[in-house]
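Honest question from a wet-lab person: if I give you the sequences of every part of a complex, can you actually get the arrangement of the whole thing, not just the pieces? Trying it with mine:
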Amino acid sequence: NAGVTQTPKFRILKIGQSMTLQCTQDMNHNYMYWYRQDPGMGLKLIYYSVGAGITDKGEVPNGYNVSRSTTEDFPLRLELAAPSQTSVYFCASSRRAQETQYFGPGTRLLVL
Amino acid sequence: AQTVTQSQPEMSVQEAETVTLSCTYDTSESDYYLFWYKQPPSRQMILVIRQEAYKQQNATENRFSVNFQKAAKSFSLKISDSQLGDAAMYFCAYRSGANSGGSNYKLTFGKGTLLTVNP
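Yes, you can. This is the full assembly:
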């Protein structure tokens, strides 16, 4: 049982490039989330999903897209990377809405 | 909107001593959940403890316990017998108890308290 896994661990992007951050969970959780953590701050919700095929925006969705074709996977897509997207990105999952969210190890992204 | 405030950017404690980290929050809801997460240098977010607002009893997990004061909207974390492995950034987080609506699903985090454990 690996929990929540994320790839890559670290990536450098040039302004205007695109990339997909991968997130997979093996706990059969319905709810999945993407957060970003800027230096010296707590995490902010980007997008979330309540089940396969259902996604919705969080607090800071601009510049990102998500999809959820399976229960296990919840990739985050960055189109036209900007320096403001330099951050650490965390994926999380929970079995139900009210239950504890379990986090992946994070992806550190640097946009130059 | 809910807010979470951690007023101590940094704290330090001697190994084997006890330390308390402060957290206050602002909400108009009566049903909600509170969490403490630990983030060591590896950046992994690790759940330390969880408290349901409807429970009067304070949550405990081994050396970790909370002092939940609902009327004062205060949720402090006490770490007893501190160990070197406790050194980390600690985040207090709030989640609405409502079951639907986008903003209800998110965790609202404080800015964190960096805990140093001195040998």
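Two things worth pointing out. DSSP finds no helices and eleven strands in chain A. Chain A has a mean pLDDT of 93.
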